[in-house]
Design a protein that fits this description.
Blueprint lengths: L1 H7 L1 H14 L23 E3 L14 H5 L5 E7 L5 E9 L8 H5 L5 E3 L14 E2 L1 H10 L1 H15 L7
Antiparallel strand pairs: 1-4, 2-3, 3-5
Length: about 160
């Protein structure tokens, strides 16, 4: 039996039948720049810092995001202000190290750091993917409406309310 399969090339014919069946079927291809792939509201892309309604950054420098980051991509330096509140003097994310797990977003008690649905960014050199606090705040300001819409769409699945507050 094995000798007959070897001489009759049955495995080869099985493989070619699959190839020919798919060769003539309809192709599913997206023309990328013009057509976009559908994304989930839980897609994790570019990081951003959010501000509250008064325009003040939400981050209270609790360092939970830095502690929970498995790739150690986040570094924070804390400063105390005159009123006794803590704010980050420096908040950096190295996206060359980041694995986009979303733990930083989950750990944040004030919902300051979020991952947007933006995936179309690049860096020409390593330093271009090192995001500082002003850059993260600018991204948060630019995509504020998109972030709030995604958080509102995701809220029923998380059992939480009031994401944009």
């Amino acid at each position: 039996m094995k000798l007959a399969k070897t001489f009759l090339l049955s495995e080869l014919r099985q493989g070619l039948s699959i190839t020919f069946r798919h060769f003539f079927s309809r192709k599913i291809t997206l023309m990328y720049p013009e057509e976009k792939t559908p994304q989930s509201v839980r897609f994790r892309g570019l990081h951003a810092h959010r501000r509250d309604e008064n325009g003040v950054e939400r981050c209270v420098a609790c360092k939970l995001c830095e502690a929970v980051c498995p790739a150690m991509a986040i570094s924070i330096e804390v400063e105390e202000r005159e009123d006794g509140s803590r704010r980050p003097a420096r908040y950096d994310i190295d996206l060359t190290k980041c694995i986009f797990c979303g733990f930083c977003e989950e750990a944040c008690p004030v919902d300051a750091i979020v991952e947007t649905r933006v995936f179309e960014y690049h860096g020409e050199k390593r330093g271009d993917l090192y995001f500082t606090k002003p850059l993260l705040l600018a991204i948060g300001d630019k995509y504020k409406d998109d972030i709030n819409a995604c958080k509102a769409a995701d809220a029923p699945y998380r059992g939480e309310k009031g994401w944009d507050k």
